[in-house]
Design goal:
mainly alpha; two-stranded antiparallel ribbon; 7 helices; 4 strands; DUF6628 family protein; DUF6628
Length: about 150
Amino acid sequence: MTTAPNSSSAPTSPSRYSASLPNPMPDDPNRRLLLFAFRRMGAHGLKDAHAASALFQAFGQDFRRPLLLMRTMMADLAHNATCPITIAPCCCMRMTASEATILTIVDRAETAPDSARLLLGDLIGLRRPDGVLASITAVASAFADAGRPLTP
């Protein structure tokens, strides 16, 4: 252990938060939008006005489908998860492992559904997460159809 100079021998160590937020925020603005809505709805409920407003600003008059499917995905995750899914505050510039896993599942939902199914099953502790995976795939399709693909 090292000590900070000019301190009263207080040990310095990495922040306890750095271990809980191991992943950087995605660079893609569409993935950031998904993550923002995920965090807001996860922390403040499905009818969060900030999440709805962000989706309205991003999608314009076509915001209803992504918003409805995002709410459906969040409800499915909450209803089916047998273990906690950790989320960071909306202003945080890093992601939890659960958030990074959700984005990986979104990436693989259409191109590698077997891999996405295994990841989702591990995340929510469910052997057959097909209904939740369908919700996640629908969100990814809604973003792509509205011109905001969730590409890594």
